[in-house]
Design a protein that fits this description.
With 284 residues, the chain is an alpha/beta fold. It is 52% helix and 19% strand. The protein contains 13 helices and 9 strands. The structure holds ligand C2E and magnesium ion (MG) (3 copies).
Length: 284
């Protein structure tokens, strides 16, 4: 009888499930190693204004894995969020970003740039978050008014009152806020109005087909109109072609980020990108 039950149980056992559990456990412990051994890097993607003049750069994390090579955040951030490892990783990001921002201050080409970084909901909800940011700025003597934090709508929806209070504290230091992946979330306009934001970052899914899909163009136009009423700047993400850029300019969007201007690159390579992009802007 017992044997039978066991056999029946076995019928529900899917070896692929065990595989995925093992893989997850490996990834999780690999992530601990990564945190301890400093296997993360920040890459930077340039942001430009309407003339194509560099105005800032977004820091994007990568994992330099000993066997897998450079691993993209899409492959480890979701797991890190689930396990809580995003907290030490996020703290590392903030410190690395502030150290970089400080370095830019001694370079005439870089010192006016804003540095944006991304944070996860869990990080933003942790009570120590404002202190972590303040300490990182102090430790590296980095200018807070050159720092921008990219949030997603989910960060804000999780606990709006808390989020607004934290944003206000950090704004007093001069830090600015951008709402990332804008248009893909669910926030109501009523709600958006209350947020102490500086910038909306239009999600790349609306930019991708903007020159062929009139629906996408209409959405972006509506975002532009709303942002101007609410006093938010707008930046378009995922700009890859001249056509997309011209179309965005024609509807009043004059801030861009995307492969057209540069891919995310190492801090060292960003110096070259910035110089080349700045030169192209002058020649335009
Ligand atoms: P995101 O913040 O929306 O970043 C933009 C993503 O779009 C980046 O992918 C960037 O490489 C990519 N991208 C930029 N321009 C173009 C373009 O013209 N075409 C296309 N197809 N893609 C473009 P990446 O670096 O793989 O990052 C993916 C996501 O991972 C980020 O989306 C962000 O949500 C998250 N992430 C990155 N770094 C961090 C971090 O330090 N902390 C946290 N919590 N999340 C991060
Ligand atoms: Mg972002
Ligand atoms: Mg985005
Ligand atoms: Mg995103």
């Amino acid at each position: 009888q017992a044997k039978n039950t066991a056999r029946n149980t076995m019928q529900f056992f899917d070896p692929r499930m065990q595989e995925s559990i093992n893989r997850r456990a490996t990834d999780e412990s690999d992530l601990y190693t990564a945190i301890e051994n400093g296997q993360f890097e920040l890459h930077y993607q340039i942001q430009v204004d309407g003339d194509g003049t560099p105005t800032g750069a977004e820091a994007l994390i990568r994992w330099r894995h000993p066997e897998r090579g450079l691993v993209s955040p899409a492959e480890f951030i979701p797991l890190a969020e689930e396990t809580g490892q995003i907290l030490p990783i996020g703290r590392w990001v903030i410190n690395a970003a502030c150290a970089q921002l400080r370095l830019w201050q001694s370079d005439p080409l870089m010192r006016h740039l804003t540095l944006s970084f991304n944070i996860s909901s869990r990080q933003f909800q942790q009570p120590e978050f404002p202190r972590i940011v303040r300490r990182a700025l102090q430790r590296h003597a980095a200018p807070a008014d050159h720092l921008k934090i990219e949030l997603t709508e989910s960060v804000l929806l999780d606990n709006a009152e808390h989020a607004i209070a934290v944003m206000q504290q950090l704004r007093e230091l001069g830090i600015r806020f951008s709402l990332d992946d804008f248009g893909t979330g669910y926030s109501s306009l009523q709600y958006l109005k209350r947020l102490p934001l500086d910038q909306l970052k239009i999600d790349q899914s609306f930019i991708h087909d903007i020159s062929t899909d009139s629906g996408d163009l209409s959405i972006v136009q509506a975002i532009m109109a709303m942002a101007s009423k609410l006093g938010f700047e707008v930046i378009a993400e995922g700009v890859e072609t001249h056509e997309q850029r011209e179309l965005l300019a024609s509807i009043g969007c004059f801030a861009y980020q995307g492969y057209l201007f540069g891919r995310p690159v190492s801090a060292t390579a960003l110096l070259g990108t910035t110089e080349a992009v700045a030169r192209a802007a002058v020649g335009r």
